[in-house]
């Protein structure tokens, strides 16, 4: 059977609390709702199962694949019959005990088909606004991630990873039709860069970009921006929301992607002879 040329993606902007069981149950209900509304690929937010913050990662960390979050997500993907990009959870690696911010991905049979450990840790210091240092407790992942579906290849990054265009570009050159980022920007960098970065990655690479944030909780120590969004290969916003709990939907249309790439053919116009290896070019 020919691959379908269009399918629905959905991003669940989940209200996340400090009660893990409640978060997991809420995520499962919303995954089933998205599936009933036609979604074939469902996305959850960064740190969807627990409170986001360096002081919480150790307390909430789980082993993969033997933790309760993986069990719940696998069962939910199977029951909903969807591909599921399971946001991220704090992961504890055994026996090293090292912690990671990790996204797990499931196929519609509930098999764990990919795992992405956040590569670029969120270490920033904007004086008077926000200081955050994920590297105080987390380790960074060492590989780039994409997975196959019958619709096409999908790339995965987590939040701060979106600031690094090389990662998205490699995904595009590996044939990805979309890059998906579970993420939790904040009230300082959200209004500054959240939408801009998504549209930039989409236009750079002429593919779809989707982001999925937790809903905003003003009582949390880290307040998420919200505004989960889906962008098309022209950088146009197909679906977005505000800061409250919500589910957004859009079609990923492979004919549209092809048309955009044919009309402005930058994909084939790159001068790799001038920039074969960007890092090498910095050397004097
Ligand atoms: N959780 C994160 O990685 C936040 C990234 C962020 O807010 C940014 O500005 O980048």
UniProtKB/TrEMBL annotation:
GO biological process: asparagine metabolic process; glutamine metabolic process; oxaloacetate metabolic process
Gene3D superfamilies per the UniProt record, alphabetical: Carbon-nitrogen hydrolase
GO terms for MF: omega-amidase activity
Entry-linked InterPro entries: C-N_Hydrolase, C-N_Hydrolase_sf, Nit1/2_C-N_Hydrolase, UPF0012_CS
Annotated Gene Ontology cellular component terms: mitochondrion
Domain of life: Eukaryota
Chain ranges of the CN hydrolase domain: 7-254
UniProt keyword list: Hydrolase
PANTHER family per UniProt: NITRILASE-RELATED, OMEGA-AMIDASE NIT2
Family: Belongs to the carbon-nitrogen hydrolase superfamily. NIT1/NIT2 family.
Official protein name in the record: 7272_t:CDS:1
Highest classification ranks of the organism: Eukaryota, Fungi, Fungi incertae sedis, Mucoromycota, Glomeromycotina
């Amino acid at each position: 059977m020919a691959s379908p040329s269009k399918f629905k993606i959905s991003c669940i902007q989940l209200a996340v609390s400090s009660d893990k069981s409640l978060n997991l149950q809420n995520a499962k209900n919303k995954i089933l709702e998205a599936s009933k509304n036609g979604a074939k690929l469902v996305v959850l937010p960064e740190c969807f199962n627990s409170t986001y913050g360096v002081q919480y990662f150790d307390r909430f960390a789980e082993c993969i694949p033997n933790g309760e979050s993986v069990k719940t997500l696998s069962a939910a993907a199977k029951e909903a019959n969807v591909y599921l990009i399971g946001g991220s959870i704090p992961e504890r690696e055994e026996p090293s005990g090292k912690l990671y911010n990790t996204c797990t991905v499931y196929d519609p049979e509930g098999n764990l088909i990919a795992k992405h450990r956040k590569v670029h840790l969120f270490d920033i210091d904007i004086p008077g606004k926000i200081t955050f240092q994920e590297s105080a407790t987390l380790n960074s992942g060492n590989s780039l991630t994409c997975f196959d579906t019958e619709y096409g290849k999908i790339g995965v990054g987590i939040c701060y990873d979106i600031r690094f265009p090389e990662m998205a570009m490699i995904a595009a050159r590996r044939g990805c039709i979309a890059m998906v980022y579970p993420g939790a920007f904040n009230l300082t960098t959200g209004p500054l860069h959240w939408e801009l970065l998504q549209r930039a990655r989409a236009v750079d690479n002429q593919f779809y970009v989707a982001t999925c944030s937790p809903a905003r909780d003003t009582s949390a120590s880290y307040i998420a921006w919200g505004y989960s969004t889906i962008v098309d290969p022209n950088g146009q916003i197909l679906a977005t929301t505000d800061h409250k709990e919500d589910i957004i939907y859009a079609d990923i249309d492979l004919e549209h992607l092809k048309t955009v790439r044919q009309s402005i053919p930058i994909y084939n116009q790159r001068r790799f002879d001038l920039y074969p290896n960007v890092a090498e070019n910095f050397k004097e």
